Amino acid sequence: MTTTFNSVRAIRGHYNFAHPTEEQVQYEFRLRPDAPQFNRRGWSIDLDYEFDVEEGEPLAAINELIEVYQKHYLSNAEKDLYPLQKYLESMELDDRIDYAREQHEKYDALSKKWFQRYLTAIENKKYIQEEAAE
Fold it and tell me: How many distinct structural domains can be found in the chain?
């Protein structure tokens, strides 16, 4: 999915090839089309360390991931978090603006759609009432 802002989502699944039945949560970062290339865009952690994320808060998620990796993991994957953190810090204001704009457009379109359905229902009700009166 292409977005105009950087975002994050958490997906539960089986990501450990050494233990295929073990369930983990993967935090996947979806970046703007013009974002630089990074070694990784997703990190998996045990469910014991899972945390809630908001789609429009990728910087908060990356900061939480760094804290989890520093406290609980000894992994080369941690070093790949820092360049993405730096990028997300530099884009934070733009992301907040673009996320708010996209949410507004989505709800505005939904409102227009429901309003149109409401008008159609009123017209149908008037037509039925007129037909019944005849």
Answer: 1
Contact 53, 63 (CB under 8 A): no
Q: Is residue 129 part of a domain?
A: no
The answer as to whether 86 is a domain residue is yes
Residue-wise burial string across 33-61, b where 16 or more C-beta atoms lie within 10 A, e elsewhere: eeeeeeeeeebbbeeebeeebeebbbbbb
C-alpha atoms less than 13 angstroms from C-alpha of 54 in its C-beta half-sphere: 8
- Between CA 80 and CA 26 the distance in angstroms is 15
- Gap between the terminal Cα atoms of the chain: 53
pLDDT tens for the 134 residues of the chain, in order:
456 788 899 999 998 888 889 999 999 999 988 888 998 889 898 999 999 988 778 999 999 999 999 999 888 888 899 999 999 999 888 888 887 787 777 777 767 777 677 667 767 777 677 777 76
Query: Domain range holding 13?
Result: 7-97
